[in-house]
Write a structure and sequence with these properties.
CATH class of the domain at 20-218 and 351-452: Alpha Beta
GO molecular function: acyltransferase activity, transferring groups other than amino-acyl groups; serine-type carboxypeptidase activity
Distance between the termini: 69 Å
InterPro entries: AB_hydrolase_fold, Peptidase_S10
Number of helices: 14
Organism: Arachis hypogaea
CATH superfamily of the domain at 20-218 and 351-452: Alpha/Beta hydrolase fold, catalytic domain
Keywords: Signal
Shape: globular
CATH architecture of the domain at 20-218 and 351-452: 3-Layer(aba) Sandwich
CATH topology of the domain at 20-218 and 351-452: Rossmann fold
Helix content: 25-40%
Signal peptide: 1-25
Length: 457
């Protein structure tokens, strides 16, 4: 009888094992091609299965804090798009490594990032939505995604990830990201907070959110660009006054029969046509497939007086498509063809055109908030962000003032009171583009360090 019982147990274990493996699988990465030494930080990569039958397999990178990983906050960081890989942030924003733009071999050289947020935070990056980066689906249907599924898949991911990483259950947990990810972050934080209050298992210790040049209200974002262009002297005052009068301040839903409004808007569009919306002072660069890849590759390898920040995209694509890199990252063979930093062919439905209401609800919770923008970003102008923050109708706790790094003005900040001892901190980063840490890594590093230390920025 005992022998039969053990057989039953053994059979059950064997049957369950593939299910467990498909739900979550992780590996420790000691070395990465392009970096000529053992990694001096703890890096883990892996997949977590979510959705129906766990068909969606989300790839992630986890970097332990170099200070005190068992006590330091854990920050989940999204990249926008939608469809841009976590490697965008890992190499060009706040990760532990960065790429040497002077590429001399088959793949880019890697070097330590002196402004890595992992100096004081545990950093978790996900390739999401499905089809982004190295994430994939076992079924064709699984590749269809949306804002709503982004939230649901991330929530399911986090539940499984924390079960697999119980030593981080009590760490203060934050959700952050830039650009379009400002849309799913709001409902996700609300869902996490509701789960925490309800005592869900695992009880994820959600404490706040950090958003950079966030996409919160599509209408507000698009509508603010004309005013931004005028304020930055990209269009003349006469045109601005005319377009404001004839379009009534509405530049999104323009009536095609309103010839004066249409004419003014066409004049505005022509004037900003060759302005780089990511950073208005940097070169406008065309990097569509129609552009000769060889010319860009040559400029990287041999140097060129003309440089574009978007050339970095070639670097990460070259690196991630190398077989040795995929092996080092434990990428599952046959799950991903060509890696693209941003996958612009996602089957994605933008279901949430405004999440300002979610951020309004979060002002009534025990949540801390950091919202920062760049003054040279026209893709999501700081004006749009300031407008939806104003709509929250919060009282000012610390009025508008400069903040400093190395004795120099790094930008401006204003702090708003939410619930009890919880605040929304707004920060502008001087001279930065979309998003700020790409352009001003040192300044944003100090801002983040101060905010997480509960110090004034």
């Amino acid at each position: 009888m005992g022998w039969r019982c053990w057989c039953v147990v053994l059979v059950v274990v064997l049957l369950l094992q593939p299910v467990i493996d498909s739900a979550s699988a992780s590996s420790i990465v000691k070395n990465l091609p392009g970096y000529d030494a053992h990694l001096p930080f703890n890096l883990e990569t892996g997949y977590v299965g979510v959705g129906e039958d766990e068909a969606v397999q989300l790839f992630y990178l986890f970097v332990e804090s170099e200070r005190n990983p068992l006590f330091d906050p854990l920050l989940l960081w999204f990249v926008g798009g939608p469809g841009c890989s976590a490697f965008s942030a890992f190499f060009f924003e706040n990760g532990p490594l960065r790429m040497d733009r002077n590429m001399s071999g088959n793949i880019p050289k890697l070097e330590l990032n002196p402004y890595s947020w992992a100096h004081m935070l545990n950093m978790l990056y996900i390739d999401i939505p499905v089809g982004t980066g190295f994430s994939y689906s076992k079924t064709q249907q699984g590749y269809y995604s949306s804002d709503t599924l982004w939230v649901e898949h991330t929530y399911a991911f986090l539940q499984k990830w924390f079960i697999d990483h119980p030593k981080f259950n009590s760490n203060p947990f934050y959700v952050g990201g830039g650009s379009y990810s400002g849309t799913p972050i709001a409902p996700l934080v609300q869902k996490l907070y509701d789960g925490y209050v309800a005592g869900g298992v695992p009880r994820i210790n959600i404490k706040g959110y950090v958003i950079a040049s966030p996409g919160v209200d599509l209408y507000e974002t698009l509508n603010s660009k004309v005013l931004y262009a005028y304020q930055m002297s990209l269009i003349p005052e006469l045109l601005y006054q005319s377009i404001k009068e004839h379009c009534g301040g509405n530049y999104v839903n323009i009536d095609p029969e309103d010839t004066k409004c249409v004419s003014d808007y066409e004049a505005y569009s022509e004037l900003v046509r060759y302005i780089n919306p990511q950073q208005i002072l940097e070169p406008f660069c065309e990097t569509t497939p129609a552009v000769n890849h060889g010319i860009l590759q040559s400029s990287l390898q041999h140097g060129s007086e003309f440089w574009c920040r978007s050339y970095d995209h070639i670097l990460v694509n070259t690196w991630a498509n190398d077989k040795s890199v995929r092996k080092a990252l434990y990428i599952r063979e046959g799950t991903k063809g060509e890696f693209l930093r941003c996958n612009k062919t996602l089957a994605y439905n933008m279901t949430l055109l405004s999440v300002a209401g979610y951020y309004q609800n979060l002002t009534k919770t025990n949540i801390q908030a950091l919202v920062y923008c760049s003054d040279l970003d026209m893709s999501i102008p700081h004006i749009a962000t300031q407008n939806w923050i104003k709509s929250l109708k919060l009282s000012i706790y610390d009025k508008w003032r400069a903040w400093f790094v190395d004795g120099q003005v790094a930008g401006f900040t204003e702090i708003y009171k939410m619930k009890e001892d919880h605040y929304l901190t707004y920060v502008s980063v001087k001279g930065a583009g979309h998003v700020a840490q790409k352009y001003k890594p040192k300044e944003v590093y100090h801002m983040i360090k101060r905010w997480f230390s509960y110090s004034l920025i």
